[in-house]
Amino acid sequence: MTSLGHLVLYVSDMEPMLRFYRDVVGLHEVGRVHGGRVVALTGGRTHHELLLIEVGPAPGPLQGRRLGLYHTGWCIGDDDDDLREALLRAQNMEVRLVGTADHTVSHSLYLLDPDGNEVELYVDVPGIDWKDPSWLDEPIRGLRL
After folding, report:
1. pTM of the complete model
2. Contact between residue 69 and residue 120 where contact means Cβ atoms under 8 Å apart
3. Which architecture does CATH list for 1-56?
4. What are phi and psi of 15, to 5 degrees?
5. Which of 46, 39, 2 is CA-nearest to residue 17?
6. Using H for helix, E for strand and C for coil, what is the string for the chain?
7. Domains of the chain by residue range
8. What is the chain's pLDDT, residue by residue, as a tens digit (145 residues)?
9. How far apart are CA 16 and CA 21, in angstroms?
């Protein structure tokens, strides 16, 4: 295995989800099929990193401690200025911020997409060697942007 290829999300309503992943996360639409009910999005690394499939209204994801997916993480730039821009975009779209974190190796914002899935937007901290696992012993701190 060389890298994670893509994620696929079933969504209740395509347009709010598309606006979130396009306008907040920064992905670009590749194309739509099945009358627009399936949309492929890319960050430019490959043909698609995210596929959204509209299935209509359904209960949202389970919250709190549970088995299954906790969140998806998207590297959105190179420094905290990129995170500040993402935070401003999220605030302008009234996206719910549920947390921030300084993970030593990266800085993160945690948001909820329109269906309630938790999404991490992060930047790696320059100068931290992630291959040296000592960063894992550091406490997770709140991030002040």
Report:
1. 0.90
2. no
3. Roll (3.10)
4. -65, -45
5. 39
6. CCCCCCEEEEECCHHHHHHHHHHHCCCEEEEEECCCCEEEEECCCCCCCEEEEECCCCCCCCCCCCCCCCCEEEEEECCHHHHHHHHHHHHHCCCCEEEEEECCCEEEEEEECCCCCEEEEEEECCCCCCCCHHHHHCCCECCCC
7. 1-56, 71-145
8. 777 889 999 999 999 999 999 999 999 999 999 999 999 999 999 899 999 999 998 777 777 787 788 899 999 999 999 999 999 999 999 999 999 999 999 999 999 999 999 999 999 999 998 888 889 999 999 998 8
9. 9
The reply to whether 71-145 shares the fold of 1-56 is yes
Instruction: Using alpha carbons, list the distances in angstroms from residue 45 to 5, 16, 27, 71, 107.
Output: 10, 24, 11, 20, 21
Fold of the 71-145 domain? 2,3-Dihydroxybiphenyl 1,2-Dioxygenase; domain 1 (3.10.180)
Contact 97, 24 (CB under 8 A): no
Give the pairing of strands 72-77 and 118-124: parallel
Q: Hey, how many other C-beta atoms are within 10 angstroms of the C-beta on 50?
A: 20
